[in-house]
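Annotated sample (chain length 320).
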Amino acid sequence: MSSLMEIKGLSTEFPLADGVLKAVRGVDLSLETGETLALVGESGCGKSITAASIMRLVPPPGRIVSGSILFKGQDLLGLSSEEMRQIRGNRIGMIFQDPMTSLNPVYTIGNQVAEGLRIHRGLSAAQAEDEAVAILEQVGIPAPRERLRDYPHLLSGGMRQRVMIAMALSCRPELVIADEPTTALDVTIQAQILELLDRLKTENRMGLILITHNLGIVAERAHRTAIMYAGQIVEQAPTAELFANPLHPYTRGLLASLPEFAKPGERLATIAGGVPDLKGELAGCPFRARCPIGDQGCESGHIEMHEAAAGHLVRCLKAQ
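Output written by the structure step:
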C-alpha cells in the first residue's frame, strides 16, 4: 500500500459570542491506498468536523486555524477554492450521514448523479445519463434507468443511501469519506450498504475513512481505528490490536459498553459524566474528570501521543 493522505496538527475552531469552540485540536491521521480507517467517538467529539475540514466544507463561522492535509503529497489547505472544487467530488468523495437532507428534493436522482460526471469528467448529457444508469446499477438500485426520473422522497432510506454512494463514487475517487453512512437504516440494510462499500473500495482501490460510533461495524470492517475524544485523537492502532489491547481509559470504557463484552446477567458498563466544554483551553487530559485511573499528574500540561507498541499510539500518561 502507498500513502494516500497524511494529516498533521489539524485544528478547527468556531468563534462564538461567549468564546471560541475548539472542535478539532491538533489531529494527526494517515491513510494508505486501499485501507479502511475508522474514526470513532461519541457525538460531539469532532469526527464530522474533521471530515468537513478534509473536504474544506467547514460551516461558517468555523475555520481551519492550523495544520496540513496532504493528499498524495499535495496540501489541500494551500489550494484555492477553485482548485479544491476540482478535487472535491472528483478525487475525494463524501457520503453524508442523512441522505434525505443531503439530496436536493427538487432535482431528480438522474440530475444529481449526472452533475458530477458532467462537471468533472466532461461528459455530454447523454453520456452522463448512461454512466449514471451504470453507477446506479453498480450500487444495487433496481430498474436504474427508471429511477433517474424519480425524486428523493420517492425512494426508501436504503435506496437514498445507495444514491449517495453512487454520487460519491461517480467520478471514481481515490478517497471516500463515509460519515455515519448507515445511521438511519435497519440492520439488514446496514449490512448491505457496508458490504457494498467494501466491494466498491476493493474494485476501485480507494481509501476509505469510515466515521462511526458503532464499534461492531468497526471490528468487522476497518484495518485501523482512531478513537477521538474532545477534538483529539486519544488512541490509534490496527483494529484487531485495539480491540484486544485497549490502552486509553476512554477506549476501554467504549468497549466495555458493548453487549458482547458483558458477562451473562451483568448490566452494560457506562462512562460516567459528560464531554468537557470545548470553549477555550483544556489543560491536561480532557478525559480526566471521567477517568477511573487519573490522578493529579493528568490535570496540567499537554499530553502527547506516544507509541506504546508497534503501530499502537495512545495519549495517556498511565498507558504503557
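Annotation: The chain has a mean pLDDT of 91.
Annotation: The two ends are 29 Å apart (CA to CA).
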